[in-house]
Amino acid sequence: MEVSKLISIPIGKFHIVFNQEVVVQWAIMISLTILMIWATRNLKKVPDRKQTAVEYFYTTIKNLVDSNMGEAYESYIPIFGTLAAFLLVMNLLGLIGIKPPTQNYSIALGLALCSFLLIHGNAIKKLGFVHYLLGYGKPFAVMLPINIMERAVFPISLSLRLFGNMMAATVVIDLVYSALGNFAIGAPVPVHLYFDVFDGALQTVVFLMLTMIQVKVLPEH
């Protein structure tokens, strides 16, 4: 896969390359930070439209956390809210003609590794490091290799699921535009609605749900 280099900073014999996906990610992070600071300023007892939208988003994430993890995990709402907003915006970028960064496997793998660290960091916090390590030998010591493999494979499967779906959506949309040629104006709207909006939102929910379930389940085994 060809990488589009937007910025290359030479440091001796090495070059630090910032490709399109990296630049887009940073633009999204900065934009979301500014948006959240603006959206949470001057909160009122009687919410206006801006505050209503913020409260709706918070309630949606809270309900997901409560239903999948329980009220004991409500302290994780900011983490999953941030992840949901970041993933959803990246997945919806196809609507404005920018390829979603998540169709790059390195981006999907980076997000999956963040989930991996969250899952195992929570398990160590709940169980303690010694009991966390002992968990790899349950229910029987002979299960040690299988348990290690199962936990090591999780970020790979999580990233491949996200990457595969977003890459497939990007390829299909490109093929539709190539096939329609000059007749593409307006015609691909249903394609964008399905592959960008529906599939992008669905992959965000799946990524969140799988991470939530693992954060909840791992300390219990």
TrEMBL record:
Membrane topology: Multi-pass membrane protein
Transmembrane portions of the chain: 21-39, 76-98, 105-123, 160-180, 200-218
Keywords: ATP synthesis, Cell membrane, CF(0), Hydrogen ion transport, Ion transport, Membrane, Transmembrane, Transmembrane helix, Transport
InterPro entries (alphabetical): ATP_syn_F0_a_bact/chloroplast, ATP_synth_F0_asu, ATP_synth_F0_asu_AS, F0_ATP_A_sf
Location in or out of the cell: Cell membrane; Membrane
Family matches, as Gene3D superfamilies: ATP synthase, F0 complex, subunit A
Pfam families in UniProt: ATP-synt_A (PF00119)
CDD domains on file: ATP-synt_Fo_a_6
GO BP field: proton motive force-driven plasma membrane ATP synthesis
Any one Gene Ontology cellular component term annotated for this protein: plasma membrane
Domain of life: Bacteria
Major localization class: membrane
A GO term for molecular function: proton-transporting ATP synthase activity, rotational mechanism
Annotated function: Key component of the proton channel; it plays a direct role in the translocation of protons across the membrane.
Family of the protein in this entry: Belongs to the ATPase A chain family.
Descriptive protein name: ATP synthase subunit a
UniProt source species: Inconstantimicrobium porci
Name of the gene this protein is made from: atpB
